[in-house]
Design goal:
FAD/NAD(P)-binding domain, six-stranded mixed β-sheet, 3 domains, 11 helices, 21 strands, globular
């Protein structure tokens, strides 16, 4: 079988789907097979997030995150508009609560302008409360281009368009072995073998293991962090109009809890960030001995915890205590009460980590002659997925 124009994509999340979609645009005659181990595409990070369309405010100018976020939100918004997918450009406030946060707010404004965001504005407390009447803070940056979307609809529509284009999506296809034979990759699942000339690893939470299966050294490791959410009860939803975010603390590697109005209705609050006991550990009780052993033997995790002991303890306490979680939310919206909160869902972030304990902050691709591995696709990967897919296709020998 001629495998010169054949591609095997492992992982049916947004990045894998978008890559197949963009590849079909470039090579309509290519033989493309996408393997997804779950019964449906988009089963993990793609649909276990806050559903925000990120415009690129936070990211260092010139970084892949910044470039892909700005292009990505434009492409994603157009795709949703063309396909009739539920979305809304509602705007966001990033709020400085203390005087120490004001210089960092100014830096965010500078970054956003450098990244090409339109309509950014720093506003004082009075104008801030015209947008979000119940927010507390000294000043804010208003980001009018940000919005919300139904990523489940995006996944399903991408899958439909991919299949209409002649590519094959195989669900329930967990890859158990990968081999390079002569001029083709052979992927073995529980029931079948698949072959192609070029391998694209978009396996998300399992991308480092898939790369290892393909013969790569695991220079970085995926460490799963669970992010837990609460929903505001109906009587408290009027406290949040759209999106309210904090100014990131540079001493900590994660953003912090925030408020998100959801496209399906309701308001979500969170997430925290705690090390999960399984790569798909959506609940505290989910435990995988193999995943835990892999993490415990990785020196990077211990160095990370050594660098951020306060954050690790705080996030863990918030996981067990609704009162502590509520206190974190009250920094932004003081009128929130513990009895306004009802448990929501959770997501698991595939966080790439170095042996030093440092987090891999930007997108990270490993490109070989016959393979490409996406080994870190952090936020804003969902928003930027179509742009990431386009970027991946631009790296391929086609």
């Amino acid at each position: 079988m001629d495998t010169r124009k054949s591609f095997l994509i492992i992982g049916g999340g947004l990045v894998g789907l978008a890559t197949a979609y963009r590849l079909l645009e470039r090579l309509p005659s290519a033989r493309i097979t996408l393997l997804e181990k779950e019964a449906n595409v988009g089963a993990h990070q793609s649909t276990h997030n806050s559903g925000v369309l990120h415009a690129g405010l936070y990211y260092a100018p010139g970084s892949a995150k910044a470039k892909l976020a700005v292009t990505g939100i434009q492409q994603m918004t157009k795709f949703c508009r063309d396909e009739g997918i539920a979305h809304e450009i509602c705007g966001k406030l990033v709020v400085a609560v203390t005087p120490a946060e004001l210089p960092r707010l100014d830096e965010l404004l500078r970054r956003g302008i450098a990244n090409g965001l339109q309509g950014l504005q720093k506003i004082e407390a009075t104008d801030m409360r015209k947008i979000e009447p119940y927010v507390k803070g000294l000043a804010a940056v208003h980001v009018p281009e940000e919005g919300i979307v139904d990523y489940r609809q995006v996944c399903n529509r991408l899958a439909l368009r991919i299949q209409e284009g002649g590519a094959r999506i195989v669900t329930g296809a967990k890859v158990t072995a990968l081999q390079r034979r002569v001029d083709a990759w052979v992927a073995t699942t529980q029931t079948e073998e698949f072959n192609a000339g070029f391998l694209i690893n978009c396996a998300g939470l399992h991308c480092d293991l898939m790369a290892k299966m393909a013969g790569e050294q695991r220079d970085i490791r995926i460490v799963p962090f669970r992010g837990e959410y609460y929903h505001l009860k109906p009587e408290a939803q009027s406290l949040v109009k759209n999106l309210i975010y904090p100014v990131p603390n540079p001493q900590f590697p994660f953003l912090g809890v925030h408020f998100t109005r959801m496209i399906q209705g309701g308001v979500e609050a969170g997430p925290n960030a705690v090390v999960a006991f399984a790569r798909e550990g959506y609940q505290l009780t989910n435990f995988s001995p193999g995943d835990m052993l892999d993490m415990l033997l990785f020196p990077g995790l211990w160095r990370f915890l050594y660098h951020y002991p306060t954050m690790a303890c705080t996030e863990l306490i918030q996981s067990f205590s609704k009162a502590h979680f509520c206190k974190a939310l009250q920094r932004l919206v003081p009128d929130i009460r513990t009895d306004n909160l009802t448990p929501g869902g959770a997501g698991v972030r595939a966080q790439a980590m170095k042996p030093t304990g440092d987090l891999v902050d930007d997108f990270h691709l490993v490109i070989r002659r016959h393979a490409l591995h996406v080994l870190n696709a952090p936020s804003p990967a969902a928003t930027a997925s179509l742009a990431i897919g386009e970027h991946i296709v631009n790296q391929l020998p086609i």
